[in-house]
Amino acid sequence: MNKIINKLKNSIWIKYIGIFYQYARWRFPALLAITTVTGMLNVIGITMLLPIINLAFNQNPDNKVSEYILTALDDIGITATIGSLLIILVVIYSIKGFAVMAQIYFSGHIITTVKCDIRKKITNLLNLMTYRYYADQSSGTFTNVVNQEVNRFSSSMRAFCRLIISIIHALLYIPAALIINPTITLIFFLIGAISFIFLRKVSNNTAKLSINITKLNNKIFRLLIQTIQSFSYLKATSSFLNVSNMLRSEINDLAKKELKIIFNIALLESLKEPIAVIALVAFIYYQVVIVDGNVANIMILSLILYRLLILFLTIPGDHQKFNRTVGGVLSVEKTIDELSSNKEIEGAKNEADILKEIKFENVYFKYDEKVILSDISINIKPFETIGIVGDSGAGKTTLFYLLTGLLKPSSGRIMLGNIDYSSLKLSEMRRFIGYVTQEPFMFDDTIANNVSLWEANNSDHLHDSTIISAIKAAQCEGFVNDMPSGLNTILGEKGIKISGGQRQRIAIARELFKDPQLLIFDEATSALDSGTENYIKQEIAKIKGKKTMLIIAHRLSTIMDCDRVYILSNGSISETGTTRELYDNKESIFFDMCQKQGITI
Ligand SMILES: Nc1ncnc2c1ncn2[C@@H]1O[C@H](COP(=O)(O)OP(=O)(O)O)[C@@H](O)[C@H]1O
Ligand SMILES: [Mg+2]
After folding, report:
1. Which range marks the domain in which residue 256 is found?
2. Cβ atoms within 10 A of the Cβ of 255, count?
3. Which site in 271, 407, 454, 569 is 20 to 30 Å from 41, CA atoms measured?
4. For 411-432, what is each residue's pLDDT tens digit?
């Protein structure tokens, strides 16, 4: 007994019904109700034919079903004549038409809304996940879940809805068939069971094939992405053929496997009717020739049994479809669970601005056991421009992550005014932060949308003029005007249609549009030629004193105008002061760096 209970508990079905209910909610019982109604109307519609034929041929109703129907009609005061019965038949089938429409619409409705809800839920959770969790994931995982796996989830729901409908409808036909002729019905059951077992074999084979297809699909997908990413290399060196030959053989293999599945599906589909018809013919022959049974009973029972058998034989196909796609449900669930347990924990204090001193107090930071930053104490006062200088790998970007609260100190604390970051509502605080990095991200969209992040779409000309002034201020006007559609030029994936320096200036325009209170530049000029670097330095000089700025760099030229500079070496602050003070100390690391980089002040 315990074994059975355990088996039930672990059963994918029980789990699935739980998940299905969790997403579909009230729609699930509603679907069951509608399906029961259509099923009952099916049965009543067919069995109504019995008394009609009896009356038409002046036969005595030789079955319980006719008797039930006639008594029921009598009870509600309707006299059974051919006319009244035919009218009732029309009414029943009209109602059934609506019910079937409701059933189809409703199951479609469940699938669409659930798919939409899940996508929204995951997108929302993506926004809430911690940076630490994000850093451990590959971007492909999430895109795959949101697209492919959610689609598989909804396909499994579709198969599940169809299974429910088939099972409920079959269950409702059974009593009617049993009442008309129990022996024959049981024989049909036997035929059904044997065919069912055979058809299941075919569908299990399909399930195995489909697992292989998923693997092959993934392989081709990965190969394809890599080929496209290395396009310029492959093309320029005529190496495309090697890769495309390999791709071609995988694609052929995939097609072969898909054809096998199509054959199986065709087999399943084509066997249903012959099996049902052979059983039916045997039944009719036996009833008419050997037993000489009642014609009306034979006709109606044939109809019912035929439908029952077809429903029964549809189940393996849908079950196979369900099995094939149920993996999507599990991986969507897993992703949602993981994302939910890796949500960023925020404090409740919501500050109206961040024009307060930001202080790092003896901050340490470790990745696993590796110490990245140790004993960092930094003050950033409102409207100051602070420079942070350090070699590559010194921990500068990690410092930025701590400053924006994306990473939490392993010990020590970071304060905004007199509030600890841990009690701040960080998502609100970040609204006041702007960020320009070495590799600014670009959306494959217009320049205007890249600057405003679609805000301009929502409203009016005010935004348009703000975009134009941001573009002018970030020295983008010249090249934007030269583009074919100006501000409405599409930049291409990763901003491929403009140069690195132009992307950098668009990124600055984006921050000028946002107008944050704290603006952070992280190696913003390190990949630029000196001409473009000068543009950006001029830009920074214009903002200086109007916003709080943090300029992170390994090249000194970028930070020479800062109010104060921190030298970060091996994860700790080794020197701090104005550039003048540091330069005047001929023993300082800063002076040494200036010498090496050919800078004198
Ligand atoms: N997600 C991570 N997991 C483990 N170590 C990391 C991770 N990100 C960065 N690091 C390590 O932290 C150190 C500092 O990195 P970073 O702050 O990016 O340096 P910088 O910006 O100064 O070049 C490097 O040694 C780097 O290997
Ligand atoms: Mg860095």
Report:
1. 15-341
2. 10
3. 271
4. 999 999 999 999 999 999 999 9
